[in-house]
Amino acid sequence: MDLYEHQARQLFEEYGIPVPRAEVTDSPKEAREIARRLGGRAVVKAQVKTGGRGKAGGVRLAADPSAAELTARQVLGMDIKGHRVGTVMLAEPVDVVEEFYVSYALDRTAGGFLAIASAQGGMEIEEVAAARPEAVARIPVDRAEGVTSAKAGEIASAAGLPPQTVDVLVRLWQVLLREDARLVEVNPLVRTAQGRILALDGKVTLDDNARFRQARWSERVEEHPDPLEAAAAERGLTYVRLDGEVGVIGNGAGLVMSTLDVVAGCGARPANFLDIGGGASAQVMTDGLSVILSDPAVKSVLVNVFGGITACDAVAEGIVAAVDTARLTKPLVVRLDGNSAARGRAILGERAHPLVEQATTMDGAARRAGELAHTA
Ligand code: GDP
Ligand code: MN
């Protein structure tokens, strides 16, 4: 899944990569207000998931707020390579002195990652590579080693980028790694007349296996914030609502993602993604369960915890507390393993709630939760 430019920009900002000030709108009137907030002038940029917008007339400079309104009116509704423009981003114009290209991409042939960088940015990198292959540096990146400052320095000097780009190169790698992206690209990364390095345009392609990350960017979440997601966010939980009937809670994004896959593999559908995190306390477990149980689509709940920093006895106490305070009406299948698993299982055994079952394996737990959801 590709992100829109403004979404990539938002991620860059979150990771400390400098970007121009910008706002998004679908209304020409609002475009005028945004331009005013940006200081009068604005670059009006079509938000479509394709490159080459500049050449197609989808990136235009507006000299003042009324020009911004007019330009937004022209750009909105445009067709760019078969993509209809539904929103525009207005960005603060910057004085560009130099344009660079930087990206990290999954390299299928080598089974690793490849950094591609060039001091000839702005145009499509394929064109640069065809015309002047020596102007494009390609450096393999080992996923485990990642892009340290030293590695970023190597990439920058191979491509002839100034040393100030090193910090951006390190942060861009963090975006790729932590957001489960297959591609992160900045084109152009610019040096301004004031000597700042700024990411002027970005492309991020998320790995299709990291579904919970994509939910954050789906139109549904953006347009109608989900009340359960809001409630979970208030309690500091990472929760994403999905379409199914089996509620899922686990600790650690990786474990929760595998749990979703195992549930799907049993022919059931997960109702949500909920990660209670690494050092989860009993309270966090109680909060998490209460969010999931208040979803009417949920027919059964699967709790899958591998105790590392989180001790399973704390998780079990959280489950007991949740069961006692929330008055459980839906079946719960619990699989505890790892740190203090035996104590955790004993706590649940003692409470002996008729709707709480324990399972010893992840597959067994998922199968049982699926069955219970279908008979409920
Ligand atoms: P793309 O054509 O889809 O890749 O869209 P970009 O966002 O990369 O914009 C195309 C080109 O417009 C960039 O390579 C820049 O040369 C230019 N551009 C975009 N924003 C600005 C800006 O704020 N100032 C200046 N001087 N040029 C800009
Ligand atoms: Mn571009």
Automatic annotation (TrEMBL):
Name the pathway.
Carbohydrate metabolism; tricarboxylic acid cycle; succinate from succinyl-CoA (ligase route): step 1/1
GO MF annotations in UniProt: ATP binding; magnesium ion binding; succinate-CoA ligase (ADP-forming) activity; succinate-CoA ligase (GDP-forming) activity
Record-listed Mg(2+) binding positions: 187, 201
- Binding-site positions, ATP: 45, 52-54, 94, 99
Q: Which residues form the ATP-grasp domain?
A: 9-215
EC assignment: 6.2.1.5
The protein's enzyme class: ligase
* Alphabetized SUPFAM superfamilies for the sequence: Glutathione synthetase ATP-binding domain-like, Succinyl-CoA synthetase domains
Provide the family line.
Belongs to the succinate/malate CoA ligase beta subunit family.
- Subunit annotation: Heterotetramer of two alpha and two beta subunits.
Q: What does this protein do?
A: Succinyl-CoA synthetase functions in the citric acid cycle (TCA), coupling the hydrolysis of succinyl-CoA to the synthesis of either ATP or GTP and thus represents the only step of substrate-level phosphorylation in the TCA. The beta subunit provides nucleotide specificity of the enzyme and binds the substrate succinate, while the binding sites for coenzyme A and phosphate are found in the alpha subunit.
Q: What is the name attached to this protein's record?
A: Succinate--CoA ligase [ADP-forming] subunit beta
Give the organism the record lists: Streptomyces roseochromogenus subsp. oscitans DS 12.976
